[in-house]
Amino acid sequence: MGKLVAYRLVLALPQLATVSLLVFLLTYLVPGSPAAAVLGAGATPERLAEVEADLGLDAPFLHRLAEWFGSALGGDLGTSYSSSLPVTDLVAERLPATLSLVGGGFLFAAVFGLLLGVLAALRPGPVDRLVNGVTSLWLAVPEFWFGLILSLVFAAQLGWVPVVAYTPFADDPAAWFTGMILPSVALGAPAAAVVARQTRSAMATCLTAPYIDSLTAVGVPRGRIVLRYALKNAMIPVLASTGLTLRILIGASFVVETVFAVPGMGQLLLHSVIGKDFPVVQGGVLVVAVLVIGVNLVLDVGYGLLDPKVRPQ
To answer: Are residues 162 and 155 in contact, defined by beta-carbon separation less than 8 angstroms?
Structure first.
């Protein structure tokens, strides 16, 4: 397992470098000057040139690129053009909300996806068709629309949960929990449908395998067969697709944040793109890339534990 972790970490370095280079290049090619966004439409050319010099925007591309990479390697992601605050502070302020939302969505997807998938595999017929209908609905409905419906029904009409979703965990854990229920369900429902279908297909294959008949013949209890043998083997293909599911959750979380007014990375990056606050965009995307690569590393380790054949020799 140590070789697997080391191998994935080595692969992560060029991935992060490529993502950083692409984001920096795209922000460099965006028309218009960030200084104009900072000063407003009435700024004089002399004042624009002065601010560009202060921000280092008049330096050559390679010089700016090398300077940014050097600072990022030292943990300094730069300073926001609009607020003059360190990007690391802005990201540290917004990242917990995004992690709460993605974690809640993934928990909902994992729990309900596995339950529905196992139930559909064990009960072919009406139950299987019902699960298929529910998962088809979850896949068809966009996250933002589902979030609006949930908010309208359970927050505005019934008042079971607050309309404004996010409360920091350190301020009020109970309010944090209740506030994250609807956003997590809205974000995790499509992912739960994917997990349920993957689990149902894998479980159906495992339950018809010859070793299941052998275990049944020697008197192993049905529940033990399902949980210890069939589900364990079915988790190998399910876990293999979970990395894609998590990447989708991270991307979709930016939309759900807007629906439920969650002050996370999505809103930070959106406002930064509109305001051409490029250090925040570059730093935020880099942090999200690190998050995705870290999640994939954890999933690769779990996949290696379930299937020793994928471990490096």
So the answer is: yes
Helices then strands, each counted (H, E), the chain:
13, 0
The pLDDT, as a whole number, for residue 311 is: 57
Instruction: State residue 130's pLDDT score.
Output: 92
**Sequence-separated (6 or more) residues with CB below 8 Å from residue 138:** 146, 189, 190, 192, 193
Give the number of other CB atoms < 10 A from CB of residue 229: 17
86 phi, psi to nearest 5 deg = -60, 140
**CB within 8 A of 199, min separation 6: which ones?**
113, 114, 116, 117, 118, 121, 234, 238
The reported pTM is 0.82
- Parts of the chain with a pLDDT under 70: 1-2, 4-5, 7, 41-42, 163-165, 243, 303-313
> Of the candidates 241, 226, 229, 234, which has an alpha carbon nearest to the alpha carbon of residue 123?
226
